[in-house]
Amino acid sequence: MKSIFILIRGNSGSGKTALANELHKYFGYKECLVLHQDNIRRDILHADDHSGTPAIDLIRTLVSFGEDHYRIIVLEGILRKDVYGEMLLKLIKNFDNKAYVYYLDASFISTIEYNQMKNKPFSILDLKKWWREDDYLNYQEQCLSNGNTRTFLEKIVQDVTKNADL
After folding, report:
1. Contact 95, 2 (CB under 8 A)
2. Which of 27, 88, 90, 101 has the CA that lies 20 to 30 A from 16?
């Protein structure tokens, strides 16, 4: 059976990590692999976020590993189009109709507010530096806005379960 790939992108502080973690809980830890771009790039590789970053290859490898061992793979992160776009589009194409692609489209003000709820919030200057305006992949990407983690979770679960044998 082909695995399901869920891609969640958006600016820092838009709720990507919280949403991915809720999906992990919903689908179950034994069935669902969640990959956090920040953990891969910063904590494992200690790499910058630029063209040619080794995070591209490691993410691709980890998603491939997920295909062999999990029913559902969730990848979340800012995943800038200019750096990760080509690799992401190839992953999406590989999963074909089992790929679900979302962009959390929150305003800058909302990301500041959400960021302040984190245990270790980023500075507003960092958020501004990382901000990517309308950084869409433009490939069957659904924009999620005007909601919260719960409503976005329900939307994704509905999308995935109506098209899969879960």
Report:
1. yes
2. 90
